Amino acid sequence: MADPNRVNPEEDVTQEDVLGEQGIADPDAEWLDIVSRSPASRLAQPIGFSPSQASTVSESSFVSPGGIGDGGDVVDGEAGHANTSGLPVKSDLSLLQMAFAMGRLDSSDEEFDAAAELLLQTLAAQIPSAEIGLYLYVNDGELPMPRHVHQREGHRYRRPPESLVRQVRAPGASALLARNVLGDRTLATENTRGEIDVESIVLVPLHVPTPPNNHAADGMQEGTVAGRTASQFPEQTAEQMQAGRMDTANGFVHVITTARDPSLSERDLAVIVTACEIFCEACRSLSQRQELQLTLHQSRETIRRLRSQLAGRVKLLGRSDKIQQVQYQIAQVARSGASVLLRGESGTGKELVASAIHYASPRADSPMVCLNCAALSKDLLESELFGHEKGAFTGATDQKKGKFEAASGGTLMLDEIGEMNLDLQAKLLRVLEGHPFERVGGHEAIRVDVRVVAATHRDLQAMVRAGTFRQDLFYRLNVIEIVVPPLRERGRDITLLAEHFVSTFVQTMGRGPMKLTQGAMKKLLAYPWPGNVRELRNVIERAVVMAPLELRGTHEITADEIMLTRAVVNETAVDEAENPQRASAQPASGRRMEVSPSMSLAKLEREHIQNVLKSTGGNKSQTASILGIERSTLDRKLKRYAAEDAKTRS
Ligand SMILES: Nc1ncnc2c1ncn2[C@@H]1O[C@H](COP(=O)(O)OP(=O)(O)OP(=O)(O)O)[C@@H](O)[C@H]1O
Q1: Which of 12, 29, 418, 604 is the most exposed place for a label (fewest CB within 10 A)?
Q2: Taking every annotated instance into account, which residue ranges of this chain make up the domain Sigma-54 factor interaction (predicted)?
Q3: Distances (CA, A) of 547 to 523, 525, 583
Q4: What is the Cα–Cα distance from 287 to 207, expressed in whole angstroms?
Q5: Does residue 316 contact residue 290 with C-beta atoms inside 8 Å?
């Protein structure tokens, strides 16, 4: 025969195990340990109770622990809750309504308390004769004041005694129902008249994620505690709860009825447990959403910070007239939303100019996206530009947004626009004219607000004449044209940029101080820079990398350490600068000049000037600088050579 002191004879759990050492003072108290829940099983079950799983419990007996839907559900037949039709009963509907209402809560800080309020309202509607308290522990210390309370008009809710609370806070504790507890001091506390008139009690442990922000103080009901902070709550994350790692409740719901009211039934217990399950799940999902929102917020902040850092770095260096003209144009066009066409050789800084326009424009806080039209096949370029739907083509395993969508609100730079085929040019034109577009394989019309900056090193007008570039697109893109000059036409900007790159690389590579020698500078100035600024950058990077590791003081980067790919270097100037005593008669082009003993000094000078002029691509300022003469002197000499030639011809 079963030991009446045992809660669950099968599992050898005594009544004391459930209630602790102090146990039940009143031997008449009837206990039902109804639900022993594992987090993993939560909400895996329907909210309602299936008749096939229901079991009726006779008075004065204990039921084995079991989760809702685990076969341990209890239905109070007398209360008429057993439902053989399989249709939801009234309480199920109300719980469903509560679940929907909780599901609709957004993830703002106050929603945890809104969910708690919904829970209490639902329970109050289901059990009109009950007083209810919801508790959350800020730490593992004493019983806190209830965070939310429901009490009827003229009635006063009373907290449970500590000894009872310990039971629901024990690891893996179940929900409890106690009846006939009138006068039992271990199960209920006194009312204002010093009587213990509580007749039945339900306690349900809660496993809720840490409330996001303790706004509980705002608009709380009587008995709640203000001034708690989220960090004071025990560390419990939604993931931990989901994984079922946390088995100590960090809160509970306490429901009581007094001697004047109907006693709480098993059906009431089941409803309360289910409602609490829904509440905990809603809190978990709110917490997860809030974590996601926090991550999103942090990511946005990071992007904003990186953008402003980037904006600070987008500096178009140069003091030459030509670069100052470009800087002026950037400032002019940035304020407008007009399309810009950037022209210039490869490596001159077209992308940098596009970025400078973007970061100086009101679109600076939105994305700046670049796409090189030369790097992709026609089909890939279309999908990169406009995106594609899942399954649009082989390999399109997911939906993908295109660069137009990615640049929404910002700027899209289309580099090498001259490489775009005519079909795509037509599609691009439509978008530039304000028409919506569809992703490849899609039907949804997408509209974006994007400023397009196109760039090319090709002669688009010639392409228009040849029929390989649409004239209407050319006009649409060429609202404003900015020509980025080649480096060889920027004179002293070469050394300015070189010095900038030296200090940049020294810093990023963590090297000691370095500087360029005069000879190195002259070598740089004498070079025609077919690869423009990009090539200069690479040359300097190499020089910094190759500089001796053991340095004392400032390392001087000599001409010999400047490795140029083309052999067209003014070695004369360099040699003279590095070894002034070793004057040489080598031409600027790098070809060794044949110097016959009969050659006059004037002829030698003329040949040298023409060679240097050739090596700088006709850049007179640069030539003058290399030769170490004034620009006006060079002009005079060139005029004289032209006059001499004309005279010879006539
Ligand atoms: N005036 C400048 N000041 C500082 N850095 C520059 C300047 N011009 C170009 N650069 C640097 O030179 C490199 C090449 O520039 P960028 O990529 O903008 O050239 P591009 O004309 O767009 O080249 P491509 O036509 O090949 O795409 C980049 O590292 C860029 O930061």
Answers
A1: 12
A2: 316-545
A3: 17, 21, 27
A4: 13
A5: no
Which residues of the chain fall below pLDDT 70? 1-93, 107-109, 140, 210-247, 551, 565-599, 626, 628
Which DSSP state fits 157? -
Pick the CATH number of 489-649 from 1.10.560.10, 3.30.420.40, 1.10.8.60, 2.120.10.30: 1.10.8.60
Question: Distance between CA 249 and CA 236 in Å, rounded?
Answer: 10
User: Which pLDDT score, from 0 to 100, does residue 354 have?
Assistant: 95
Contact of 360 with 331, CB cutoff 8 Å: yes
pLDDT tens readout for residues 547-606: 887 767 899 999 999 988 654 444 444 444 444 443 333 333 334 455 566 667 788 788
pLDDT in tens, 261-271: 999 999 999 99
CA distance to 13, 542, 571, 578, 616, per residue, from 527 (Å): 91, 16, 10, 17, 7
- Helical spans, DSSP H, in 6-110: 15-19, 90-103
Decide: 533 in ligand 1 pocket, CB within 6 A: yes
Q: Is the CB of 322 under 6 A from ligand 1?
A: no
Q: Compute the distance between CA of residue 307 and CA of residue 364 in angstroms, rounded to an integer.
A: 8
pLDDT of residue 225: 26
Q: Tell me where in the chain the CATH 3.40.50.300 domain(s) lie.
A: 314-426+433-472
Amino acid 636: pLDDT: 85
pLDDT in tens, 420-452: 999 999 999 999 999 999 999 999 999 999 999
| CA 590 to chain CA mean position, Å | 53
CATH 3.30.450.40 residue ranges of the chain are 37-55+66-290
**What does the pLDDT read at residue 593?**
52
Task: Output the pLDDT for position 597.
Answer: 62
Closest residue by CA, ligand 1 atom 16: 349
pLDDT of res. 14: 33
Q: How much of the chain, in percent, has pLDDT values that exceed 70?
A: 73
CATH for 37-55+66-290 (3.30.365.10, 3.30.450.40, 3.40.50.670, 3.30.830.10): 3.30.450.40
Tallying the residues shown for the chain, one arrives at: 650
Ligand 1 centre to CA of 640 (Å) is 38
pLDDT of 91 reads: 61
Helix pair angle (620-627, 518-526), 10° resolution: 150
pLDDT for res 46: 27
Long-range Cβ contact pairs of 131-134 (< 8 A, separation 24 or more): 131/155, 131/156, 131/157, 131/158, 131/255, 131/256, 131/257, 132/157, 132/253, 132/254, 132/255, 132/256, 133/157, 133/159, 133/160, 133/223, 133/253, 133/254, 134/206, 134/251, 134/252, 134/253, 134/254
Substitution candidate for ligand 1 out of 315, 342, 352, 456 with most atoms within 8 A of CB = 352
Ligand 1 contacts CB of residue 413 (under 6 A): no
Amino acid at 270: A
Candidates 314, 290, 148, 297; CA nearest to 220 is 148
Q: Is the CB of 535 under 6 A from ligand 1?
A: no
Provide the token pair at 587: 């031409």
* Three-state secondary structure of 389-451: CCCCCCCCCCCEECHHHHCCCCEEEEECHHHCCHHHHHHHHHHHCCCCECCECCCCCECCCCE
For residue 331, give the 3-state DSSP assignment: helix
What pLDDT does 208 receive? 85
What is the predicted ipTM?
Answer: 0.98
Q: Is 352 in the pocket of ligand 1 (CB under 6 A)?
A: yes
Nearest CA to ligand 1 atom 10: 349
C-beta separation of 485 from 348 below 8 A? yes
